[in-house]
Structures are given as C-alpha cells and as structure tokens.
C-alpha cells in the first residue's frame, strides 16, 4: 500500500532510491571483501589489499560485473580458484558481496573501479581468465570507444592476461557481438570458441551460469552469443 506521504510527493520514490544507494555505498566500503579504487589514486594500495584474496591461485576477473551473481556462483563451484568482480558502481556489487560474507565464500573479492584503470591496477600476466558478461553495447557511433571490446580495452586485457590466459565474452546483443568479433580478428586475437546460442550448445555448464540480465533474455527466447579468444 502506498503511504499518504508518498502519494502527495511524486518524488518520494526517488528519495527512497537515493537513500538505498547511499546505504549500499556505506556498507560496501565497510565489507572486508570489498575494495574501491578512485581514478588516479595509487594502484599499489589496491594490489596489496587484494593479495590475501588471491592466495597464489589461478584468477578469474569479471568486468562490468553488475551485481556479480555470475562470479559469485563460479566462486562457489571453484574453491581452488580466485575471483574478482569489477564494476564502476558499488551498489551493483553490494548484494553479492554481502551474500559471499554470509556464506563464508572467501575466494572472491569485489572491486569498484573505472575500467580504464585496469592495466595500472592489475600487473602484467597476473590474470588467467577475463569474463565480459553483457557489457553495455553503446550502440551510438559517438560512444564506440566506450565498448569493452574496443581495441584500447583489448590492449589492456592483453597486458594483464597470463601467457595462456583467455578472454570470454557473452552478450545478447548480436550487433555488438559481430562488431566485437571484427575487433578480435583485427587485433590478432585467436577465436577458439564461438557459438550464437550458448544455452543450446555443448559448451561447459559453467559458461551457462546466468547473470541477472541473462536470465531475463533467455526467458524472452533471446539467444546468447558467446566466444572465447586468446
């Protein structure tokens, strides 16, 4: 039931939403598995903070992780590996960060940072696997450079990936996917896995762990495009 004050104030829901975000921001910064890196700040600090979470294990990095349900489920299934979920907004990461603490899952960390800082925060050849899961397609021409498969991002990924590391990418957006395949080829990446309907493929079940958006798209019978490049 809507309260009388909410009915009389058309902006009440916006105020409430803002309060919820501020609440999540505050708790994110207090959780022991959460870290923030301001653009231009010393990356060495974040590296030292993350070191205990890596523990010398093979490391998977999810970029534009959103609420990080995907990374959290992979962390549950693979206790012998480390996972880092990265997004620009901490309120998105908050829910999975809290759930990881509740379940005692100690092989995953959550990082709020700008994607442009990737190769300054993560050292050369330090990441074994990168997942790009449903990044914003930025379909307008003027926004092309913001796509996470743009060559200037691919250059960063090459720096931080280990010698036998891989980049895995899934999206519902066919236009972005086809454009991205062109970028991979032009930048000399080798495509080792490629399907245009992930959930109808014979690829490993862990690839099919669903993100929040992926679940919505599959319910709408929208096929999920997937590729792996090295």
Question: What's the short story on this structure?
Answer:
With 230 residues, the protein is an alpha/beta fold.
Notable characteristics:
single chain, 230 residues, alpha/beta, Rossmann fold, eight-stranded mixed beta sheet
Would you give an account of this structure?
This protein is α/β, with parallel strands linked by helices. The protein has a single domain (about 30-230), classed as 3-Layer(aba) Sandwich (Rossmann fold). It has 9 helices and 8 strands. Strand 2 (about 60-65), helix 4 and strand 3 (about 80-85) form a beta-alpha-beta unit. The model has no long low-confidence stretch (mean pLDDT about 90).
Strand and helix map with partners:
Elements lengths: L3 H5 L3 H19 L3 E3 L6 H12 L3 E6 L5 H9 L3 E7 L2 H14 L4 E5 L5 H4 L5 E7 L17 H10 E11 L2 H13 L4 E5 L16 H8 L5 E5 L1
Parallel strand pairs: 1-4, 2-3, 2-5, 3-4, 5-6
Antiparallel strand pairs: 6-8, 7-8
Helix pairs in contact: 2-5
């Amino acid at each position: 039931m809507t309260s009388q004050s909410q009915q009389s104030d058309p902006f009440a829901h916006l105020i409430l939403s803002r309060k919820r975000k501020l609440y999540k921001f505050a708790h994110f910064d207090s959780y022991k598995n959460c870290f923030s890196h301001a653009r231009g700040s010393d990356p060495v600090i974040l590296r030292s903070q993350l070191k205990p979470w890596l523990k010398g294990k093979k490391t998977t990095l999810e970029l534009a992780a959103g609420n990080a349900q995907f990374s959290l489920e992979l962390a549950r299934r693979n206790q012998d590996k480390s996972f880092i979920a990265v997004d620009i907004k901490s309120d998105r990461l908050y829910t999975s960060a809290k759930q990881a603490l509740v379940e005692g899952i100690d092989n995953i960390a959550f990082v709020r940072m700008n994607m442009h800082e990737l190769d300054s925060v993560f050292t050369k050849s330090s990441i074994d696997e990168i997942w790009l899961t449903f990044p914003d397609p930025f379909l307008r021409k003027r926004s092309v450079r913001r796509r996470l498969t743009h060559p200037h991002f691919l250059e960063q990924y090459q720096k931080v990936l280990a010698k036998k590391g891989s980049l895995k990418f899934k999206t519902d957006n066919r236009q972005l996917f086809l454009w991205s395949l062109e970028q991979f080829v032009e930048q000399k990446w080798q495509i080792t896995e490629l399907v245009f309907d992930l959930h109808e493929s014979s690829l490993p079940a862990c690839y099919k762990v669903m993100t929040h958006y992926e679940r919505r798209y599959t319910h709408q019978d929208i096929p999920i495009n997937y590729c792996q490049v090295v």
